[in-house]
Amino acid sequence: MVSTDNLDKYRSKRDFRKSPEPTGNEETGTSEPRFVIQEHDASSLHYDFRLEVDGVLKSWAVPKGPSTDPSIKRLAIPTEDHPLAYATFEGVIPEGEYGAGTVLVWDMGTYRNLKNDEGEGPSLTETIDEGKVTVWLDGEKLRGGYALVRTGDGDDARWLLIKMDDDEADARRNPTNTEPQSVLTGRTLEEIAEEERT
Ligand code: MN
After folding, report:
1. I need a surface site. Which of 127, 179, 183, 195 has the fewest CB within 10 A?
2. What's the CA-to-centroid distance between 118 and ligand 1, angstroms?
3. Which ranges in 19-167 belong to alpha helices (H)?
4. How far does the centroid of ligand 1 lie from the alpha carbon of residue 59, in Å?
5. CA 189, CA 198: separation in Å to the nearest integer?
6. What is the Cα–Cα distance from 102 to 40, expressed in whole angstroms?
C-alpha cells in the first residue's frame, strides 16, 4: 500500500448516483483520530479496519475480523483510502455497484499511535510505510493495543492484524460472534438489509 494514496481510486470505483456511499466531499472535523471497523457482507463477508490518517481513512479488509486473542493472527488486505465520512456509513451498496452488499458499523472510537505516545516517534504514516503499526484502540467493543504488521516483500507482502498482549487481551472473548450489532444503530446486518432495501 502506498500511504500517499488519495481518494481518486476510491471515487473511480464508485457511481455516487447509484450508491449511497460518501463522495469524500463532506465536511468533517474530529479532534482525536478515529478508527472504525465495518462489517461488510459483500461477495465474501469481511471486516474493514480503518484508521484516520492525514484526512483519509487508511483501510484494510480483514476476512475473519479482529480477534481479542493475542495468539491469533488475522490476515489484513490493504484497500484504497476512504473518505473520513465513510466512518459513519451504514447501509446497502446496490447490486452491480462496487462492494455491493450491506455495511454495518461494527466498532468505532479513537486511537493513539503507540510508537509516538510522547510526540517524538514516527508518525502513523511512517509506521504504515515501515509495515510496523501499533495503535491503542478505545472502541466500544475493542480496546487495547493492536499491531498491524507487514511480512514479506513485493507480491508476497502480507499484512496481519494481531491483538497485543496487554490487560485488554482476552482469549475467551469472540466479539465478532457474540456482539454482532452496529455500535451506531444497534441493528444487525439482516435488519439493515431489510430496512434499507430500495
Ligand atoms: Mn469492504
Report:
1. 195
2. 33
3. 124-130
4. 9
5. 15
6. 6
Q: How far is the CA of 119 from the centre of ligand 1 (A)?
A: 32
Q: Measure 121 CA to ligand 1 centroid, in angstroms.
A: 31
pTM: predicted TM-score of the whole model, two decimal places: 0.89
Amino acid at 1: M
Q: Ligand 1 centre from 120 Cα, in Å?
A: 33
Question: Where are the domains positioned within the chain?
Answer: 8-197
Quote the DSSP letter at residue 8: H
- In a 3-state reduction of DSSP, which class is residue 40? strand
- Distance from the alpha carbon of residue 195 to the mean position of ligand 1, in angstroms: 20
Centroid of ligand 1 to alpha carbon of 81 (angstroms): 12
Cβ–Cβ under 8 Å, residues 189 and 180: yes
| Percent of the chain at pLDDT exceeding 90 | 80
CA–CA separation, 142 vs 108, rounded Å? Answer: 9
Identify the CA nearest to 163 among candidates 182, 137, 175, 145: 145
At 147-189, the pLDDT tens digits run: 999 998 887 889 999 999 999 999 999 999 999 999 999 999 9
Task: Specify which residues 146 forms β-bridges with.
Answer: 135, 163
Q: Which residues are within 5 Å of ligand 1 (an ion), measured at CB?
A: 40, 48
Residue 101 has pLDDT above 50, yes or no: yes
**Percent of the chain, pLDDT > 70?**
94
Cα–Cα distance, 174 to 194 (Å, whole number)? 26
